[in-house]
Structures are given as structure tokens and as C-alpha cells.
């Protein structure tokens, strides 16, 4: 029951995330800096770190990619939870994964 509650809380966290739009006439330097930065990854070292890093990954993506990431993340959480995998193992499995790696992981669940 605690795992289901944890999954639901994670879903609420991710579904509440909203991608910030750049200001009109904003600096192209910011876009360049973001594209040069390393791709954000999930930190599975603790519950809090995981929730925060999932939100950061989500916010770092364009809307279409963020939606795919969110769907893939939820799919992994549900499949693994229903499959009897405990939270610590799920966190370990997702630790260090980028958005694209999470999407691939979800595709390979089938």
C-alpha cells in the first residue's frame, strides 16, 4: 500500500510540473547555454532527490518530449510496482538515467 501511495505521489509531482516558457525577446545565450549543458538525469539516492530530479528532468524538456518522458516514467513505476519490485530497487534502476534512457527503458518493458 505504501508503494502505491508513493507511486501516486510521484505521479502528482510530475503531472503538476509545468514547462516555463522563455520570455519574448529573451536572450539566445540562455538557449545556447542550456543546449550545451549536460542532459539532466534522475538522482535515485533518496526519495526527495528522486522527486526533485524527476521534476528537473521534466522541466528541462520541450513539451512534447516532457509528455513522453512523464508517460514513460509513470509506465515504469506502475509496471515495476505491480510486478512486486520494491521502491529501493526502482530508485536504483532509474538512478543516473536521462529522459531518453527512461523512454527506452519503458519501451523495453513489453
Number of β-strand runs: 0
> In percent terms, what proportion of residues is strand?
under 5%
Number of domains: 1
Secondary structure category:
mainly alpha
Average of per-residue pLDDT values: 79
Distance between the termini: 25 Å
General form: globular
How much helicity do the residues have?
A: 55-70%
- Taking Cα atoms only, what radius of gyration do you get, to the nearest Å? 15 Å
Could you give a short account of the major beta sheet? none
> How many distinct helices?
6
Low-pLDDT windows of residues: 16-29, 32-36
Q: Write the element-wise H/E pattern from the N-terminal end onward.
A: HHHHHH
What this model shows, in words?
- By secondary structure, the chain is mainly α.
- The chain has one domain.
- Helices cover 67% and strands 0% of the residues.
- It has helices at residues 2-15, 28-36, 47-60, 63-82, 87-94, 99-107.
- Helix 3 (47-60) runs antiparallel to helix 4 (63-82).
Give a quick rundown of the structure:
By secondary structure, this protein is mainly α.
Which secondary structure elements does this structure contain, and how are they paired or packed?
Elements: H1 2-15, H2 28-36, H3 47-60, H4 63-82, H5 87-94, H6 99-107
Helix pairs in contact: 1-4, 3-4, 4-6
